[in-house]
Amino acid sequence: MSLRPSPWVSVLYVVGLVSVFLGERVAGAGTERLVLSGLGLALVLLAVAWRVSRTVRASGDGRRLERWLLGLFLLGGLGLALYVLSSDVAPWGVSLKKQAPRLAVVLAALFPALLAATLLPLVLVELAVAAMARGPVLEMGRVRAALHSGLGLAFALVFAFSTMYVATQADVSWDLAYFRTARPGEATRKLARGLNAPVEVTLFFPPANDVRQALEQYFRELSRESGLLKVEVLDQAVEPARAKAMGVGENGSVVFSRGQRHERLKVPLELERARGQLQRLDEDVYRRLRVVARPRRVLYLTVGHGERGLMPQSATALEKARPGLSQLEEWLRVLNVEVRTLGVAEGLETEVPRDAAVVAVMGPERDFTPEELAALRRYVEHGGRLWLALEPDGPGFEPLLEPLGLKLLRTPLANDQRYLRISHQQNDRGNLVTASVSSHASVGTLASLGSEASIVFPGAAALESVEPLPKGVKHAVSVRASAETFQDANHDFIPNEGESRRAWPLVVAVEKAGVSGASPARVVAMGDSDVMTDGGPRGYGNPYLLMDTVLWLLGEEALAGEVSNEEDVPLQHTRQKDVVWFYSAVFLAPAMVLGAGFLVTRRRGRRRAPRAPGGGAS
Amino acid sequence: MMRTLLIARRELAAYLRTFQGYIIIAVVLAVDGLLFNAYALGGVSKRSSEVLSLFFFFSSGTTLVASVFISMRLLAEERQAGTLPLLYSSPVKDHEIVLGKFLSALAFLSLMTLATVFMPLLVMVHGKLSVGHIAAGYLGLLLLGSASLAIGTFGSALARNQVLAAVLSGCMLVALLTCWLLARITEQPLSDVFGALALWNQHFQPFQAGVVHVRDVVYYLLVTYVALFAATRVLEARRWR
After folding, report:
1. What is the predicted ipTM?
2. Where are the beta strands (DSSP E) in B121-216?
3. Does B160 touch chain A (CB under 8 A)?
4. How far is CA B145 from CA A251, B68, B140, in A?
5. What number of other Cβ atoms are within 10 A of residue A31's Cβ?
6. What whole-number distance in Å separates Cα of residue A576 and Cα of residue A416?
7. CB B44 within 8 Å of CB A538
8. Which pLDDT tens digit goes with each residue over A133-178?
9. Greatest CA span in chain B, whole angstroms?
10. Does A142 touch chain B (CB under 8 A)?
């Protein structure tokens, strides 16, 4: 008996499976689920029964086709049965998930594979049969190819999902982003080399710990600098008494000891958490080592004349907002320098305190009283260390600068070629960028870094030496503006006629012989105070300028050097860099590709061009 | 294998001996450059790793779009031009045709992607970057490009002309890209399946951050394999339909 192929049986089967899916995955619990799943199951059973009936009635190739389709139906039915077994809808009320959880997982993974191996071949076989609907005979070779294609696709999918599952479970990963434990920097090495008494570094870490290994590597390198630096690794659990003596209650501590003085550094035991700290480890070590190796010094910050304070100043009706010096205080703490304030209340009108290692005048807006200036002058004459950071619109400090042979030119500087873009306005030209530093000891680190560490002076004025210099005074211009900088007299940030361009001196280091046998005084005068505020740009050489300045003023310039820091830094770009990057990325590179394309295609065209008749060599 | 490489070489030469191939590379470079300057570098000052991460984010978008345009012609053009029967009648197997054409497109896309390498190197000049991060990002871009090209090849095998091929490939890519949205609204274990299927969200972000997971590499390779397998089956289906 000849039986025409009918796609409706397969459609009924697929509709039944979809209904079961909707009942189980979309409807959730309750009557809806029961209706949809029950209806779906009934449709599937009906389709199977219909297929069996067609198989019995068919003959020849038609029977073979029906058998294959029945086989696929049964495979799908088996998948459905496995789902019922592995889920909570088992009719006998026993949950396989509780009785045999492993088997439930296996069945849960197997039933979608069986359904895929049913549905994909089913669709492709029906498509192949439909293509032959008007043909006189059924070409079983085409049906078999479709069946194999469908099965192949299903197996490929099952393979892909299984492999993905295994890869996810046994995942291995490599973090290749920027991470490196800092190595001992030049400043820390110099500090270690300059030790005059034994210093012990004790690491409290458990064995086989990643952070411990990173720390050991760092201190092994540092201990080579001096025989006075001893490094020891202990496990707090094994040596509780020694740990307690150093004030350590648990692992994850580095203790720097000199005699009875202990400085502790906490480091997390897990590498992930310790990352950030390990990247700036050198700075932390430098700070602790300096605390135990060097005496504490005091830097007095003058107050009462609108100077920059440690805290930022919010805007008022009369004054604009000004950033503070908390970052500077942080750097000074690294140098074991304590910051105190000095004003009239602290006796500035009479005398500078005797314990002052440095007196700093940071961007005053109003003049000092004659008594205060006299006290500061006496301090300098007796070998004091003064740090003057002035502003173009602030007082000129002539009574202090004149005996030092210096003068503040109170015209602001600007540069239309080399400046830092911050607000993308014309006034950005006031943010001078320079890498022009001398070899003077007050900028030793910057000189060694060269053009890698440019300094940014936002809104600076120039300083000028008044010739002839007073007796016993020596000047060294340590930082100059770049040569195209001009004095912007009319504040329009445009170089007009008469606004001459020069490499203006921005920072001058002064040494002056002390009176009546006093040690020589040291003064650093800067034409800008924003260079050291918290509002200054990061990622430039400004911190080194300040550290070097303080070390020179303290007479410790031999300890100046780079502190190694592997932390990621914000990317600062000047207008020049922006222009170069923009043109190279948007125009130059595409133009080069087009140029190469033009050359290649033109050469090919020439090679293929036919020779002129009669031409060529004989 | 030799026949596959022969097809790949011939197809790649077709890209590079016409000016159009260079125009595509130049346009992609210019778009990447614009996005890099405007969004990755522009605005407030960002950390080097953030700039690099944003660069790979935008590059992944251009790679996806470029892969649709590169792959749309692979098989659909042959059918449109009527040269597919010639390929069928040649002693080349279906999988060799598909693989050869895919490899040529992948080589072209790789060339285009690697031409942008000077941008992260520019960041390196003034920032702190690890070569490993750059390598991880480019590995991610190449794997993403490979997977989307394979999907495009599948779309090209299904369609009768190039425009339809681009539309089909685009739809499949968008469907795979938005799988993470489905993962949000469905329950487990379906949400896990959709989450794992998402082409970009779960699998590309680690590369962008400089982290290489074996599971992500395997995912992109599997998508490539399944899509190419399906494309081969579609070519074969012409014989039995």
Report:
1. 0.89
2. 211-213
3. no
4. 47, 10, 8
5. 8
6. 10
7. no
8. 787 788 888 899 999 999 999 999 999 999 998 998 888 888 788 7
9. 61
10. yes
Amino acid of residue A557: E
* Cβ pairs A/B, distance under 8 A: 189
Residue A149 CB partners (closer than 8 Å, separation 6+): A121, A124, B233, B236, B237, B240
What mean pLDDT do residues A517-539 have?
Answer: 82
What string of pLDDT tens digits covers the 241 residues of chain B?
788 999 999 889 888 888 888 998 999 999 999 998 888 877 666 778 888 899 999 999 999 999 999 999 899 988 888 887 887 778 888 899 999 999 999 999 999 999 999 888 888 777 777 889 999 999 999 999 999 999 999 999 999 899 999 999 999 999 999 998 888 887 777 788 888 899 998 899 999 988 899 999 999 999 999 999 999 999 888 766 6
DSSP letter at A260?
Answer: T
CB atoms within 10 A of CB A97: 16
Cβ of A176 and B135 within 8 Å?
yes
d(CA A68, CA A54): 12
Contact A133, B228 (CB under 8 A): no
Q: Apex CA B101: angle with CA B97 and CA B105, to 5°?
A: 170
Q: Which residue has the tokens 């074996």?
A: B214
Alpha carbon distance B69, B24 (integer Å)? 9
Residues of chain B neighbouring A581 (CB-CB closer than 8 A)? 37, 41, 122
- How far A82 CA lies from chain B's nearest CA (Å)? 16
Q: Two tokens at B224? A: 């490539």
Residue A576, token pair as written in the block:
């020049």
pTM of the predicted model as reported, rounded to 2 decimal places: 0.67
User: What is the CA B24 to chain-centroid distance, rounded?
Assistant: 14
Per the DSSP assignment, residues forming a β-bridge with A300 are A340, A359
Q: Which strand (E) or helix (H) includes residue A485?
A: none
Find, among A77, A69, A71, A98, the residue nearest to A86 by Cα.
Answer: A98
Would you call A583 an interface residue with chain B, using a CB distance cutoff of 8 Å? no
pLDDT of residue A616: 41
Tokens of A106: 């296996």
Three-state DSSP state, B7: helix
Nearest residue to A356 (alpha-carbon basis) of A347, A364, A365, A367: A347
- CA distances from residue A258 to A105, A298, A464 in whole angstroms, order as listed: 62, 21, 46
